[in-house]
Structure formats: structure tokens, C-alpha cells
Amino acid sequence: MASIIYKNITKRYADGTKAVDNLNLEIREGEFMIVVGPSGCGKTTALRMAAGLEDITDGQLTIGDRVVNDLEPRDRDIAMVFQNYALYPHMTIFENIAFPLQNRNMPAAEVKQRVQAAARTLGLEEHLDRRPKHLSGGQRQRVAMGRAIVRRPKAFLMDEPLSNLDAKLRVQMRAEITRMQRDLGVTTLYVTHDQVEAMTMGDRIAVMRKGVLQQVGAPVELYEKPANLFVASFIGSPAMNLVQGRVTNGNPFGVCEIGRQQIALTSDVLRNGRLSNYHDRDLVIGIRPEHLEDPQGADPMAPRLTAKIRLVEMLPPEQLVHLELDAEPVASISALELAADVDKTRAENLRLEAQSHRVSIVARLPSGRRYTEGETAEWAINPANLHFFDGETGEVLR
Ligand SMILES: Nc1ncnc2c1ncn2[C@@H]1O[C@H](COP(=O)(O)OP(=O)(O)OP(=O)(O)O)[C@@H](O)[C@H]1O
Ligand SMILES: [Mg+2]
């Protein structure tokens, strides 16, 4: 076991592409760290530098107590699992798992003992004499894992290892890899662009965008306290609702204006130092779908927001109620750019809304109550659940 530390790490490819830009990240001993972000944000590049498969342009990479910048991959004592887990078709499962050990002239008895231990961990004991083509996709993925764990390396590096599996198998393997990582306690750096994998598997998540680390934290921390509009939009499904608004002085603690509606703020919200610098300036207001509540179940004193019900999607035990709000959509260039990074359709919707003075938002509610499409209704909001962002920089105001 060992920590992996990226210190001011930059990667510039020969053609000038800056794939990773001054990355500072520590993966602690035994930690399961997820790197997540949209396609092309530099995840694989970051991982390959740790593996020694890619030169480091700038900065210092440490594994355990060794700076590894100039160390050959085979001397780094780490194991990689890729998306295409290329097994040797002519070898048995036993031979496939044993392969990295036989390369090192380990005595046969120890090889056997280690392969059997790995097979036990992964539930492959009955398949050791078979060939890869006789195994299911999930079992083959487990063989690839076996090949990694049998070496007992200091760290695992995994690059989207589940992306070739069907949805059901992914859910199962997700849980298995998480359990295996906990059991073995091996430091793990796991790359994915799937935010559900990110949220469910790791101890902490590092979110990247265009080569730049945006935020590192436990899943709940990223969800509840996103550092900027990008993380706020990337983490969570359905995504956080965003609308243009302002905060003004008013009785007694100030109000948040959304369109022509006002949400009275509480003293603790207004005590937020940075927000007070944004009085009477446009900013972006974020509301998670579950924070638009039915007034019947909510605090009777909670402020209300009126919005028209456009569509109800039943997903017991929940329902997603799509609402139309009379307000200004988020229109700043940077906000549109950020949205485009997360999801192209979402960006296009924002662009269309920009001319309409209407914003589509989503409420996530228990499926028990019936809502009628076309009706206008009130929704309760606890002001402590509002997120405020600078529309230009995208930074959270906290
Ligand atoms: N060998 C290379 N030469 C030049 N540019 C490269 C090279 N490999 C990757 N890039 C570029 O570096 C950036 C980061 O690529 P990388 O593969 O690390 O992204 P990623 O986050 O893993 O994306 P994905 O989710 O699609 O796998 C991209 O802009 C990519 O086009
Ligand atoms: Mg990649």
C-alpha cells in the first residue's frame, strides 16, 4: 500500500495539447479515489502518468516514498485494469491470472496459492480450467481484476473497467469492485465518466474539466457543496436547476429574486460573506430537484415559488415533476459553456430558453401525490438549500 501524490503535474502532448494542467491531488494510503469528468478532460492522461505509460511534462509524482517521474512502469509496483481487459484466449483462466507472476520467476507453489486466493476473492474458483471465451463478460472482467490483485501491488489504476459491460452487470461489478477494494485495502485510482459509478464507489471524487481539477471531496460533500457551476451540474441526476436571479436587501434579512417572485432569506444565508458582495448583481441560483417540496409536507413558514406543471414522470417511489418558471434563464456565456461540457442537450435547451423568459425546472417528489399537468402550483423552498454562483466565473458564493 502506498499513497499517490500529484504535485503540480502538467502534461503537454507533442502537438501542444495541454491534457493535464497543474494537477495537485493526493490519493491517501488505502484510499479509493475516483477521477471523473467529461470526455477529453484528461482523466486517462492523469492515470497513465502514474502508471509510467506517459511522460510527465512538469511537476512531481510520488508513489509511496519514491518520486517516480523517471521510474520504468515495471518498477513502480502498481497494477492497471483497462476498459478492454485483453485476456489471452489460448490460456486458461488460471494461466491468465498467473501470467504476471510467471513473468517474475515465482515458485510454482506460491503462484498456485496466490491465484487460488485471487480466484476465491472474485468467485472464479470453478472457472480456473476454462478459457476466456467460455466466460461471461462480467466473469472476464473479474479475471482481469484477478490478474491485477494477484501481484499484490502497492496501488491499482483502473481506467473505465466497466464500460464494456451491459447495464445490469455494471451495477453488480460496481459493488464487487468496491467490496474487493475495501477487503484488500489497496490504494486505488479509478477513472470513469459515469457519475453514478463516481458517487457510489469511491471514498473521494476528483472532478476534472479541460485538464483542470475542479474539486476533490467525498461524494456527499460534492453533492451538497459544489465549488462551482460545473461540479454542481455534473454531480446529481436530474441535474441541479439553474436560474438567473439576484439577492437584494429587504426585510428583514434580504430576499432572493427569481423573475418577479421573491424568496425571503434567513439570517444564516445572508451571513454568507461573499454573497453580501453580490447584492443587486445578477447571479445564478441553483436548486436541487428534491429541494422543491410540496407545501403540504413542508415547513408552513417556508417561502414559496410558483411554477406551472408541464409534465409528470412517474418513477415510483418518486415522481419527477417538470415545471415552467417565469424567470430569466441562465444566459451568461460561461454558464452555457459549462453546461455544454456536461451535456450538449442541456446546453441547447438553455440556449432556446434564453429567448423565452421561461425556465424549465424539475422537482423530485414522492410518488404518492397526484399533480395535474397544466396547473400552476406553489412549491416550498428552504432558503438554506439554495446555491448561489457568480454567473461569469461559475464559482460558488459561500
Ligand atoms: N497522444 C496524444 N497526443 C495528443 N493529444 C492527446 C493524446 N492523448 C490524448 N490527447 C488529448 O488530451 C486530452 C485528454 O485526453 P484523455 O484521453 O486524457 O481524456 P479522458 O478524460 O480520458 O477522455 P475519455 O473520457 O474520452 O476517455 C484530449 O484533448 C485528448 O484529445
Ligand atoms: Mg479516457
Q: In words, what does this structure look like?
A:
With 398 residues, this protein is an alpha+beta fold. The chain folds into 2 domains: 4-232, 3-Layer(aba) Sandwich (Rossmann fold); 233-295 and 304-389, no CATH class. It contains 12 helices and 19 strands. It has helices spanning 43-51, 93-102, 108-122, 137-149, 167-184, 195-201, 219-224, 229-234, 267-270, 273-276, 333-342, 344-353, and strands at residues 4-12, 18-27, 32-36, 58-63, 66-67, 78-81, 155-159, 187-192, 204-209, 212-217, 241-248, 255-258, 261-264, 282-287, 304-315, 318-326, 358-366, 376-380, 387-389. The strands form 4 sheets. The chain has a 6-stranded mixed β-sheet, with helices on both faces. Strands 13-12-11-14-19 form a 5-stranded antiparallel β-sheet. The chain has a 4-stranded antiparallel β-sheet with strand order 2-1-4-5, with helices on one face. Helix 2 packs across helix 3. It is elongated, with a radius of gyration of 25 Å. Magnesium ion (MG) binds at residues 43-44.
Average pLDDT value? Answer: 91
Q: Describe the global form.
A: elongated
Give Rg in angstroms: 25 Å
Q: If classified by CATH, what would the architecture of the largest domain be?
A: 3-Layer(aba) Sandwich
Give the helix/strand class.
alpha+beta
* Overall number of domains: 2
* Major β-sheet strand ordering: 6-7-8-3-9-10
The low-confidence runs, each spanning 5 or more residues with pLDDT under 50, are: none
Classify the fold: give the CATH topology of the largest domain.
Rossmann fold
> Please, what is the CATH homologous superfamily of the largest domain?
P-loop containing nucleotide triphosphate hydrolases
What's the number of helices? 12
User: In terms of quaternary structure, what is this?
Assistant: single chain
Helix content: 25-40%
The tally of strands reads: 19
How far the N terminus sits from the C terminus, by CA atoms, comes to 37 Å
Give the C-level CATH assignment of the largest domain. Answer: Alpha Beta
Bound molecules: adenosine-5'-triphosphate, magnesium ion
> How much of the polypeptide forms β-strand, as a percent range?
25-35%
Major sheet details: 6 strands, mixed
